[in-house]
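Anyone up for a design puzzle?
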């Protein structure tokens, strides 16, 4: 995962009730900040687990 990468769709509810795509703005080991399609910032934490493992299914293979 990298800054600028797009996470597609609902992301299993990781970002709450946010159904659109999100672009990664900042990333750490177990957290990520994204901007949704409306321009709002959304934050998610995987509570100690690698964020890439948590969200890997929402990144298209050609995005990695």
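Challenge accepted. My sequence:
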């Amino acid at each position: 995962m990298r800054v600028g990468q797009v996470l597609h769709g609902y992301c299993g509810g990781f970002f709450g009730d946010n159904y659109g795509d999100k672009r990664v703005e900042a990333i750490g080991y177990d957290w990520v900040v994204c901007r949704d399609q409306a321009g709002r910032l959304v934050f998610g934490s995987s509570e100690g687990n690698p964020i890439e493992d948590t969200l890997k299914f929402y990144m298209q293979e050609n995005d990695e």
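A detail worth pointing out: Residues 6-63 form one domain.
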